[in-house]
Design goal:
The protein is of the alpha/beta class. The protein has 10 helices and 6 strands, in the order βαααααβαβαβαβαβα. β4, α8 and β5 form a beta-alpha-beta unit. The chain starts with 8 loop residues before the first strand and ends with a helix.
Length: about 260
């Protein structure tokens, strides 16, 4: 992708729930993992997972799985201090469901994730002098699979799990922006597009640390919450309360015209 030296704005995208639908992959792997490590006594519902993530600190799905396991046993009267949970074992089981069992080629749930945008949308942003890239809590391998293999993007700007602390720490967002602004000195406004409370908190922290730049959080409703109107509305309100300036049904609604409208 070629960028002009001075972009009019910068759009940074989360990946899970924004670029790809992970309701049947990451979230399914969370449920599988919790069910396995609770000896099939508890399988969290999509609402259970959403409620946990609404706390704003469980962006990492491995940690979210472990926390749901802990909370189940606590509800049964077992203090977490007495539980013998091994985090690496939890991660390995999760990955066996999400990535699959073949260490060389993905053959798990990741292979069936529906895409939520088309490459033509990103090209339209480029034509409007809007620089774009990705900051995600997904692993680099998982993120590159969707960006390069599925979407066909050529070496997109990406800060992944291995590159920065987890959200809502804004370090990864700053790193993405630094690459995209290409040394320009006019501090173009930054839009961060995500589907969770942690994403919106990341924008708030970025704004507090670097108030000289305009930071705008844009919420996107993941597909799994749009099936029931009341749940969709409640999720949208949660994102707004966390700081979203706008909540969209699909990422591609954030076109150049919408970005200009938000800036004005």
């Amino acid at each position: 992708m070629t960028q002009e030296l001075s972009p009019k704005a910068i759009a940074v995208f989360d990946i899970d729930g924004v670029i790809r639908d992970v309701s049947g992959s990451y979230r399914r792997a969370i449920a599988d993992t919790v069910e396995y490590f609770t000896d099939r006594a508890y399988r969290p519902t999509p609402l259970d997972i959403d409620q946990l993530k609404s706390e704003g600190i469980w962006n990492n799905d491995w940690e979210a799985s472990q926390e749901l396991i802990y909370r189940y046993f606590q509800s049964q009267g077992q203090p977490r201090e007495q539980l013998q949970l091994d985090y690496n074992t939890i991660v390995a089981f999760f990955q066996s469901r999400y990535r699959g069992t073949d260490p060389e080629n993905f053959n798990g749930y990741i292979c069936d994730e529906p895409l939520l945008l088309q490459p033509s949308y990103l090209e339209q942003l480029t034509q409007a002098s809007i620089a774009w890239g990705f900051f995600s809590g997904a692993t680099r391998g998982s993120a590159n699979y969707i960006l390069e293999k599925r979407l066909g993007l050529q070496s997109p700007v990406l800060i992944a799990m291995e590159d920065a602390p987890g959200k809502p720490d804004p370090t990864g967002l700053f790193a993405t922006v630094q690459i995209l602004e290409n040394g320009c000195e006019n501090l173009p406004p930054v839009f961060y597009v995500g589907d969770t409370v942690a994403d919106m908190y990341t924008v708030e922290k970025a704004r507090n640390l670097h108030p000289q730049r305009t930071w705008i959080g844009v919420g996107v409703l993941p597909p799994h919450v749009q099936e029931i109107v009341a749940r969709r509305d409640a999720y949208a309100e949660t994102l707004r309360n966390a700081g979203a300036a706008l909540v969209l049904n699909n990422v591609q609604e954030l076109n150049a015209e919408q970005i200009q409208e938000l800036l004005s």
